[in-house]
Amino acid sequence: xxxxxxxxxxxxxxxxxxxxxxxxxxxxxxxxxxxxxxxxxxxxxxxxxxxxxxxxxxxxxxxxxxxxxxxxxxxxxxxxxxxxxxxxxxxxxxxxxxxxxxxxxxxxxxxxxxxxxxxxxxxxxxxxxxxxxxxxxxxxxxxxxxxxxxxxxxxxxxxxxxxxxxxxxxxxxxxxxxxxxxxxxxxxxxxxxxxxxxxxxxxxxxxxxxxxxxxxxxxxxxxxxxxxxx
Length: 230
Prior knowledge:
Elements: E1 2-11, E2 14-24, E3 29-33, H1 40-48, E4 55-60, E5 63-64, H2 70-76, E6 78-81, H3 93-98, H4 110-116, H5 118-122, H6 133-145, E7 151-155, H7 163-178, E8 182-187, H8 190-196, E9 199-204, E10 207-212, H9 214-219, H10 221-228
Parallel strand pairs: 3-8, 3-9, 6-7, 7-8
Antiparallel strand pairs: 1-2, 1-4, 4-5, 9-10
């Protein structure tokens, strides 16, 4: 589905991603863990096309997209749930869901969204700034799904959520996997990520320093202490 090979990305003169290689196989959930400032969000921004790498290659669905603009990547089947939700606070829930949706239709409709998140149907005419944190996250996920993606990039989807809402997001992600979506999940919540992922990568200072199954990471006290502060 997605292959990122030896990605080197800079913020100005800051050398952020230093040779990151991560694959997301079709139908899988791949998680990236790490402390703040280690390059996780930069990697997501590079994959979606907000930033271009100085070196390296990104392939999506057997097509190189390294220099492709973000809108073309979305049209190819990528969706983004950004860190901090980034919904349009001055638009209604309905407007957030339908902005940018083409007439061609796709796998996800409003009816299917409301089945996944009934609260959004009840809040359909509410402004984005009137929603709770959990409702905003549901809207951010739904807005990405309305593009009918095949690969969903999720950057810190549990950030700022109460434990009961974290469980709800977990249930939604597992359902999306059953629907056939491939998911790249960036998280700081280790337990949340390990419950969902097929494979876990740990990032530190712009590099992937450890990769394993969730069980292997759970049992590796050295990696957890050194790179995750646990």
